[in-house]
Amino acid sequence: MTRQTYLFTSESVSEGHPDKVCDRISDAIVDTYLKQDSDSRVAVETLTTTNKVVLAGEVRCAGDVSKDELVEVARRAIKEIGYEQDGFHHATADIEVLVHEQSVDIAQGVDASGNKDEGAGDQGIMFGYACRETDVLMPAPIHYSHQILSEMAKARHNGSAPEFGPDAKSQVTLQYENGVPVKATSVVVSTQHSEGTDQQALREKVRGYVENVLPEGWMCPEDEFYVNPTGRFVIGGPDGDAGLTGRKIIVDTYGGAAPHGGGAFSGKDSTKVDRSAAYAARYLAKNVVAADLADRCTLQLSYAIGVSKPLSIYVDLHGTGKVDETKLEECLMEVMDLSPRGIREHLKLTKPIYERTAAYGHFGRKPDADGGFSWERTDLVEKLQQSVS
């Protein structure tokens, strides 16, 4: 029997965390290529350390994107995040570009030809999840962890919290009773700050953002509220710790409340099912819950490189379902084409919409008018309800 009373913790990291700087640059590069050619193939990783950025990977694009342009894309992303410190500055960082043409072996497996449809860009398993813990159908611990840092970042950018630096982390532990989150038992926030900032004043300022994000009455006890536990956080970002694309995959998804297939999202175009099929899995799981077919839904998809159809689909409604899971699996395959091409066309994933996903989670966001976060729409509800009836 599933436990009903327990503590569960999730963490988030800000846009200025070294790994998130890398995710942002990699996704900015994806968008740059897609603006040139919507059929671009991109797999670009970023490494950062003290005043150094390395871009590496493979691409294919009908347009022309120079190495100098990639350097400027990286500088612009770093500047918008807010890094202008001696050890990591958008204007002075040494940026090395090691990006080359996509492997012909990969290309021939992915491309459509003759009677062969476009295949998956790699093998792998992808998971989607949705639940009723929040109004965006996301697990509460990761949702509130993201929101705390997002609000702090807004304050930093609009000038109301100039003492905040770009690098920050949050961690929220919630108590569950009868399977429902009821309050926070501890909250941890570590934020980079300017030299000479009073730590007590910083604590009180951070408290305001935490209390505004958490539901009323959910604030943790005073002795379980931790702000900069080490006592000082002036040196931050890539100057304090090296960063790499794709190292925050649990932060990007469900905060550990649901499985993760293991593949990162950032730096990849939508032929890579690590990204597109994970988006499709979230889309389907969210629509299942929004359609009131279950209170929780975990969905798994699997693919083989070069093969267009998914090899399997698995649904677990965690004992909350109002429909048979086997029938639901069949219905989900009917209401959406889950081939790489089908996913890309249904969710319109060839647009330059990825840089905005790089921080504060790929899921639980509001769909944008230009197609961003299309996988957060709930436009399959009626079709699903009809399909299972």
Largest sheet: 4 strands, mixed
Order the strands across the largest sheet as they lie in space.
1-8-9-10
Broad shape: flat
**What pattern of helices and strands is seen along the backbone?**
EHEEHEEEHEHEEHEEHHEEHHH
Q: What is Rg?
A: 21 Å
How far apart, in Å, are the first and last alpha carbons? 29 Å
- Which regions have little confidence, pLDDT < 50, spanning 5+ residues? none
User: With helices defined by DSSP (H or I, 4 residues minimum), what is the helix count?
Assistant: 10
What is the tally of beta strands? 13
Average predicted confidence as pLDDT: 95
Strand-residue fraction?
15-25%
Task: Offer a few descriptive terms.
four-stranded mixed beta sheet, 389 residues, 10 helices, alpha+beta, 32% helix
Task: Walk me through what this model shows.
With 389 residues, the protein is an alpha+beta fold. Helix content is 32%, strand content 24%. The strands form 4 sheets. Strands 1-8-9-10 form a 4-stranded mixed sheet, with helices on one face. It has a 4-stranded mixed sheet with strand order 6-3-2-11, with helices on one face. The protein has a 3-stranded antiparallel sheet with strand order 7-12-13. A hairpin with an 8-residue loop joins strand 12 (296-303) and strand 13 (312-316). Helix 4 (140-158) crosses helix 5 (199-213) and helix 7 (273-290) crosses helix 9 (340-347). It is flat. It starts with 5 loop residues before the first strand and ends with a helix.
